[in-house]
């Protein structure tokens, strides 16, 4: 119902346009997954940035954001380092390189000390691993723009503000929030911990990369808001719903010494479809 009925109404009321992130000025674009701007402002703060604004996302969920920002275009000056499992919606020959970190176990082993058994327990890509892989990619390709698409603060809740792993399986919005097992406030607190966790690592990576860095998000998150004008509550980030809490995202800029960017002939390997991961995260049925 949300996608078929509420979705068109939200697009009619709020519109469906959004910011083209690739046309903005940056060397490093850090994407926090499912990060509402109001949560970012409350948890991270904005005073430490050289500039801050909110922008309208081109999608209310990850596949919409990926398709609407990238498909049909070519960015041979950019490498996409991504923990999000929706990379299969990307068309071929868009980026110089796409690094699907969940699938690149050999690369991870070469640059990270992560315990793979612990990684399996976490169920998603830890932010520390994203940092390790991104540093290696930057060292290898210092003349490329970088999109670093972390999976946090999106559930599962896995971390603390000090960067340590602490898993809370109860704080899951698509089932436990909908059924009332947890409250919106508890989900907010869990997302806040995940946001503190990923920002801890984003700060570290900013220090290691030259250039201008931007922190933004692919989309926000619904925590049971009434989706006016239909008296139905929205949860998580359903397809086609363009509520402001899904499409209003942060845009925080950190100036740095710029690096020279150059395009090149890309290495466009076919990327995994990640269907098992999407099923584990509750997006696909059995």
Automatic annotation (TrEMBL):
It comes from the Archaea. The lineage of its organism: Archaea, Methanobacteriati, Methanobacteriota, Stenosarchaea group, Halobacteria. It comes from Natronoarchaeum mannanilyticum. This is Sulfatase.
